[in-house]
Amino acid sequence: MEATTSSFKIILGSSSIARRKILAEMGYEFTIMTADIDEKCIRKEKPEDLVMALAEAKADAILSKLQTISNQEKDDEQKILIAADTAEAILQRLPIGDYVKDAVPTLLVTCDQVVVYEGVVREKPSSKEEARQFLKDYSGSHAATVGSVLVTNLKTGFRKGEWDRVEIYFHTIPDETIEKLIEEGTVLYVAGGLIIEHPLILPFVKQVVGTTDSVMGLPKALTEKLIKEAL
Questions:
Q1: Which residue from 147, 173, 184, 196 has the highest number of Cβ atoms inside 10 Å of its Cβ?
Q2: Annotated active-site residue in 60, 85, 112, 213
């Protein structure tokens, strides 16, 4: 698709390489800010509620940074925040004073994702052993990703977030492939140790019910929808 950000700015509130790649593929230019939060302190029973709450927490952390920056430097363009979580809860806390005066909006995008296996939420593996067990569980079975995206317009105060769920079915994954994945290490840094685009795991993905970009952490269609609504 062909997109432009000349009439607004985007801040991607994520350090994820995959999310950067996806947003760039969508045709957007953006800057990056990261949220320094303790994700383990936020607990929710339902995975959908958890990813939304984490996205909100990330947005709040970045908003604090933006508020500090806005006190030091004024921009001629409006800023929109895209974060993955419930929008209404954060609306009253937006530091939108300076952004209201900007000529164009800025969007902050924050996201979060977990894997669900047999009804249990899985976040990033805490060890190689846990990552190994995660992958063994997926072998010949299936799991789901639940991811959130939140968009906030700093000029207008509009904010909205939604979540997306994808089901992934696997063929039997050989033990040697699992060991190579553990040794390579990427699976240690992603939710549930699940990274279906990895060349070692891709041949063993049987079916994806949903979109691959959502599994990678940023559903394109949902993100595009939220950006348009925020503008």
A1: 147
A2: 112
